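Hey, quick one: can you model this chain's 3D structure?
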Amino acid sequence: MRAQTLVLALIAAAIAAPATAGAPAGVWANPSNSVHVTFKRCGDDVMCGRVIWASEKAKADAERGSGERLIGTEMFRDFVEEAPGEWRGEVYIPDIDKTLSGTITRIDARTLRGEGCLFGSLGCQSQTWKRVK
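Sure thing. Here's the predicted structure for all 133 residues.
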């Protein structure tokens, strides 16, 4: 389950993007629809994302890992646009109480692909997130 949460957080990292043209503003859901994230400007050309909804299982997993509540957690920090439609920042993973580097690529207006690695290029995973209507 921790690996799944890692992927979730890494993909969610992709959700937090800067408020520039084409930034994926709004609410996004992970592939299993167990976590919803919204993000806001948290500095010049920087976006941060907070969990606004989570399933009971996702909440319990986060509390076991970090001892923190999942709702309200800033999981996506300091995301900046590196190229059109591509962002990089830090992702906090409550299940394992770790922060790592993550990227997000905007596929289209309703789809994001997030990727992240636990150590360098090891333990890499990706997820596809969908915009919540």
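One thing worth noting: The two ends are 27 Å apart (CA to CA).
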